[in-house]
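Revision sheet: structure tokens.
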Amino acid sequence: MPTATFRFYDDLNFFLPRRHKDQAIQHEFDWKASIKDMIESLGVPHAEIELIVVNGASVDFEAIVQPDDQIEVYPFAAPVDLHPKVALRPPYTGRPAFILDQHLGRLAAYLRMMGFDTRYRNDYHDEELAQVSHDETRILLTRDIGLLKRSLVIYGYYVRETHRQKQLAEITRRFTLRPLIEPFRRCMKCNGVVHEVDKAEVEDGLPHGTASYYQDFHRCDSCGRVFWKGAHHERMQALLDEIIRQS
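Predicted:
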């Protein structure tokens, strides 16, 4: 039976069973398949891959695996000195925007706190997550490996950490978000844009005594929630400072 040799590098080993981690994999096959399909059959989602090298040459996802091929698969930012390199997807341009699956609600709120356009609902179906990610050029963050294998997904990442604050630090590092942070520019509840507003416009709806203690107020353009720099704001600022320190 024909055999191809696969070698996955660095962070991609996360997706492999222990017996295949950090070593060459002799993979037998008896069907004609694209390299994308064969890689995903081994467990690694295409959205996590940045570079594929076959017999010393960079190839795209549609390359057909041939007997005796030597295949090397690299993640984002792998230091590989190879020219030319075939891009597996268009470069992501502009400010990062995200969509998150149902397991990552707190992370969605934190990304909004940092000022990033982040779509989240706890009732998204996988098909909708993939479609919105594709149509709106959003980075899909998920804890579902199968979701990242959907062909519609161009930009995606599997969140490794399970602790909420560590997840935020992980995403901040992975997508180099630190220089792009605009704290409290989006509503943590609905993702709307938040703007400063005169106290007189919102005073009637404030809790008793709030207008006496605070002078600066902001309001979400979408849901109308009003914000001020109280104890909750101070806790969120402390969290943000810690995430910036970790990243």
